[in-house]
Amino acid sequence: MPTENELFHAVDALLEQVAQDDLPDPAERKRLREAAGLSQAQIAAALNARREAVGNWEAGRTEPRPPKRAAYARLLEGLAARFPAPAAESVKGVPTAPETFTGQPAPAVARAAEQPRSRPARVAPPQPSDVAPPTSRRPAAKTATPKPASATQTADPRFAHGPLAVIDVADGEVSAYCRGGLVLDVPAKSLPALVEWTLTEAKLGAPRLHRSGKDADPLVVLTDAAAERYGLPVRLSDEERRAGRLPENHQILKQLEKANWQLTRRGFGPWARIYRPAQGSKRSCVQLCILGWNALDERSWGHAAHLPAPELANLLGAYAERVMTPRGSTAVTGLELMTALHPPTRASEPDETGKRHREHNPGSLGTEPVECAPCEAPDGHPLLAHLPRFHQRTPDEVLVEEAYDWARPLTDDECTKRFVVGIDVNMAFAAAANGTIVGLGAPVHIQQPVFDPKLPGSWLVDLSHIELDLRLPSPFTPTGERPTGPAWYATPTVAYAVEIGYQVAPIEAYVRPDNGRYLDGWYNRLRDAYIATMADLGVTSSMGPEKFLAAMEGHKQNDPQMAIVLTAIKATVKGGIGKLRERPRGGGWRPGQPWPALGRPTWRPDIRAAVISKARINMHRKMLKTAQATGQYPVAVLSDCAVYAADGPSPLDFLPYKDGKPLPGGFRLGVSPGMVKHEGTQTVLWAEGAREEHGPDLNIARYIKDGNIATTKDTGE
Asked: If both were cysteines, with which of 59, 108, 149, 471 could 184 make a disulfide (CB 3.0 to 4.6 Å apart)?
């Protein structure tokens, strides 16, 4: 007679057998994982699989095979029980008829996404009031047919219509376009009413990224027609553009004030935030993005601002889902993502009365800014107010951790080759952020310290005695020149000197005993966003080097919208790191005076220095490994791009692959952050001619992509 446990095991076996072919569709798999707050890496670890495999399962590119399939199905079944799909939409995100609420404001009406100027007839004429009564806005919902890959997926019914909406006006009617083909009727007739409608009826927003964080506020994007409809100028005047905001006496600001809405200190600019003070845990805040005011900078967003409203909603929705709802420029969003993943406070354990209080969240940067070390302060900082006005600080006075900008003449042997080939490190700053230990608190000043590679900080040390092959740039300076005496360095730079076998004796240091891997979650989210977007463009992590290079040729033409998302993700990385040391911008600032950025906890030049230091060291380590294995040296390096002379035009003509496997510790072709792609190829004759025409200091890595000699400089900011 079988025991009860044996019977249960038999039933479990049957359930697993049924589960072999009973997986939800790919979009639902991703929804369930994100609803549970799990990462692809966590699921991969539990199933003894690769993270890329989980990503492929969620994208529908591959399916899990036994025995992982049964375990994966069991996981999804358990998550589905805890996080059921909202009743207002199907699993695939196709909106159904609106819910009916008794005694509550009517929800926004969903209808199909038509061409911007093709409109269905309204059921009732507009009412004379500012916001039409809910009963007059109830035409039957039409079924939308969005692409499954871009469907709105959320486990929270509060945000059933996604994170954002693009507001447009056609034929006198106002509509809100959401991701996945959903369109909402907008009854609001003034800007204050639009804000109210967004918060009470639109069901826009996104769940928090951390349990101690805040839900993302809804984002409302205004086209030119919508801006004009709500009383805003389509374009800012020259004076308003320089100020970055509307003047305080503008009629719109008076309307908002009359309706008890407030603005943040940045005022009413391209990314205006309109709010009322929070009541307990309830937030009332809407983010505006005004396209005609250059809110979507072309350097980060390409021609996104000129897309039709439905396409722009899908594009911004994809970015919001993979990164976060934009909070401003990509640089601002990159910084805000750090805080969203590491909120400064959390709820305490209940006190004797059962009440919880806010307390510091371990691993975060806290709520108050910390003072930087004098050597970490940029020119003009209040800590340097005592210096003469035109004083130029020397390396023993200032920490200079920047990306590479180095080039050298080609050797005679290199001149006999036909091509110069550039390779570029994917998401170099993001890859460098991963695993980097950074300070969380204020620095401690120490004289004659013993160097500790696990202690983040700035070290005054003399590395001028270290001699390396002149065909490689020095790892210790951005220019690649050998140091001439004591200088300030971030921990990763000094640690590399120890790694390659040299003794170091720091003179003094500013170290941060309170530290941690603050940027790991930031890296993980941006890495997943980058890889998922590259997969949408036809480039996956399972490709070998030849297939990868072939897929990269013209990959942005496969889906121009997702190519814009890719550019924005990369700009989020660079901008977020650069924003850690934001400099003063206008406003009558004078050297020695504080500027607004100094007042936030995320103004941390030491963290920026550590990341850029590690990125430069990672680059040098790979170049050194390649040189030791092949005798090949770079002829130019710019930030994350290295140029080599080669007999052929492909990176495979000089990268040391053996049996399809790359050199351990060297450059590796692939899509993941830290791996490399083909940046561009030119002839050796082009390289020599460019240097002859523009001087020996010309860095050909800056122009290797298309061969056009320009003056634009990539500062990594």
From this structure: 108
